[in-house]
UniProtKB/TrEMBL annotation:
Gene: LOC108940925
GO BP annotations listed: adenylate cyclase-activating G protein-coupled receptor signaling pathway; cell surface receptor signaling pathway
Membrane topology, as annotated: Multi-pass membrane protein; Single-pass membrane protein
Family indicated by similarity: Belongs to the G-protein coupled receptor 2 family. Adhesion G-protein coupled receptor (ADGR) subfamily.
Domain GAIN-B: 382-543
Domain SRCR: 18-89, 84-178, 181-263
Protein name per its UniProtKB record: Adhesion G protein-coupled receptor E3-like
Membrane-spanning residues: 554-573, 585-602, 614-638, 658-678, 698-729, 741-762, 768-790
Family annotation (Pfam families): 7tm_2 (PF00002), GPS (PF01825), SRCR (PF00530)
GO cellular component: plasma membrane
Keyword annotations from UniProtKB, A to Z: Calcium, Cell membrane, Disulfide bond, EGF-like domain, Glycoprotein, Membrane, Repeat, Signal, Transmembrane, Transmembrane helix
SMART domains tied to this protein: GPS (SM00303), SR (SM00202)
Amino acid sequence: MWVYLSLSINTNNYGAYWYLSNNISTGLCSQLGCGNIVSLSYNTISTNVLQAQCTGRESAVTECNLYFQSGSSWYSTLTCSGNVRLVNGSSECSGRVELLYSSQWVSLYDTGWTTQQSNVVCSQLGCGQAVATGSGETPGSALQALCSGAESALQSCSFQSCSSCAANKSTSVTVVCSGGVRLVNGQHNCTGNAQIFLDGTWMYLYLSFSYYYIYWYSSNSVSARLCSQLGCGNFLSLSYNTIGSTNILEARCTGGESDIRECILYFQRGGTSISTLTCSGSTISATTQPQTTETTAFVKDLEALLNNSNGQVTKVLNDLLSYLWNSTNLSEGKAETFLNFAFGNFYNRSDNVTDNIESANILLEISETIASLLIEPNATYSNKTLKTQYLEIRVTVGSNTSQILPLVANGNEMKMNSSITQNNGSVSATLISYVEMENIMTARYFKKDNGAKMFSSVTEAFLKQIPAMEPINLTEPIIFLLKHNQMKPQDGNVICVYWNDTGMEKFWSELGCTATYTDENYTECSCTHLSIFALILQVDDNETNNDLTMMSKIFEITGLVFFALAIITFALTSQTSKVNNTSRLNLCISLFLAHLLFLTGSDRTENQVICSVIAGSLHFLFLASFAWMFLEAVQLVLLMRNLRKVEVLRKQGLPYGYLLVFGYLFPAIIVAITAGLFPEGYGDQNQCWLKKDKNLRWSFLGPVILILCANYISFLMIIWHLYFVLGLIQQDLSTIKDVRILVLKNCVQFAILGCSWVLGFFPEVKIFAVLFIVINSQQGTFIFLVYCLFNTQVREQYKKWFGCFFHKKITERTDTQTQSLS
């Protein structure tokens, strides 16, 4: 049975109380594998509590004297640091982040580290909230942290080695926390009500000394150390005031503590008295300190304008943008000041969604302009990093790819390509990763599906020629590796998008961006232009997908039955047909095998080799079907040139061998080239088909589009020939009628077999997905109806076959009856 525990130290010397309680608490944290003690506090509960009377020298709590205490009792609340610490800093609440991993303290690479993760570390250590996040040299071993952003402890993240980080000598994360105490509600940050950060929240503090006859103004008192800890100079005064009923933390101190958290802490529910501390000095955070008189004056002017404009953030941001456009350069300090002002006012004062989007676009322009002003036009090589709680900017200048390494900001990476080597002079590359901007520029601005959601942070990238500062046009797609903001679900489809803000309407668009690779944590995007990018996740509707899958199987089986009937019919009537049906027969064979293989093997992804073979076979068979459809159009063109006798195709058309060579060798060559250039391009984790990597789908779509265009041109020629030429020549009416019917059938066949594939380009539109399944799966049904059941000659042949069959049955029955009578 689990019971609450109350730790008590058996000593008459209260001055030794904290030392002994700290010992036993540290031992308990260590026993739990939870690092060092952060704080020990007490709370009341109306239940039985196990009292542990300890001397403070025990190695485990079970060695203390244990007894039950019934009724309302105090129980102990222990906060441990976990297996995380800050080292080499100016205090215990600042320094390089280290994690105890596999019994070894390791640093964490600064790849994708966010302010939210810094807050987790600070909170976990009882050090308040993060005030700054930076990077430093990486000594010894280091890991890459993969966090979703919702963790309450750093250990909840997953960790992995990063060979590229080690090769590039990536820096490690450093964090500066506010500390576990602060002063609020004062005229400046060095006077006010004392608060302590405990269990992830700030609580008012009541400092208790009278019980122990210890005076707060003592030279060794906690108050003096508290002022010093806050960077607020000397201790001046301590007073008490009352507030409305709230939860207050009482700190019972001896006066010899070096940190307020070393006092014994008790919860007071509904307390009213809190402590007010006044220190001599005041501090201004380095992240908000104005860098120049000019910057200070301008920010004050903007603040005044904002206060007088009824919170119209957009106007103030436009004024800031105009100011930046007229600037020629910007120091990192001024840049940070302007960014904090712009983003801080945006998040604090923007309420209306429409206004948010308008202001968000201005913020993006401000960030891009500031990043451009950080570029040194005369530099041949430089690297700059600017990181705030709102964004991270990485700017690098170089003359070749060896100098411009891949840029990484908040876990998002831009990989360099030959675009920067084909320019004269140096090139600057900039990557900006925004924090929480995806909550403003949401997936509702993605037109294709209302069920989509943002799946990454918003990231911006651009290249500029130095010293002209002109944008560089890409000669080939550039690759981005974007970090997911949560684990990718199995049924999710990740889409790479960019922010289209060229018109009146702003929206996310896929144009020019393709997801070439995705796993649980990252997606690689290939984009033909530079802009503002993000990932959008579309989660399939399982119920709808199951219905579509079932419908697809039923329609596929039906289509295969009619394909088989059509193949048998064409094979048996080849000698009596008026026209050469070699192309149509092979078209049906190719489609029959393709649909059969798709039905039975397209989802066999568990074996990569088998899946690749199936994908390659499907690629070949579908290309072969389009090749035979093209050959049938060619034969029809030849027929129009020889209208004197319809049977001429069988006698004077393309030789049978030529037909087979083009019908099967052409797709085989395309598949061989694709497999040779991209041997791993067939089959992925979702389906046995062409992978999306490196746009391999164009090895299928390219030939298909080419054939469809050729067929379209052929049918235009045929129709023109049919209506304008036939009127000028004498021709047998039955021949002309046969030709017209044949042309009509082929036009319909072109629409059903060829144009229906256009619907496959829009799988996210449900009605198109349904139409694609219905039309493509019923290709066999269409061919059987049009070329067999609706064909007079074939119907006559069917009558003969059925007549012979039934005549034979009747004859057999008559013979049987005759034998039985005899």
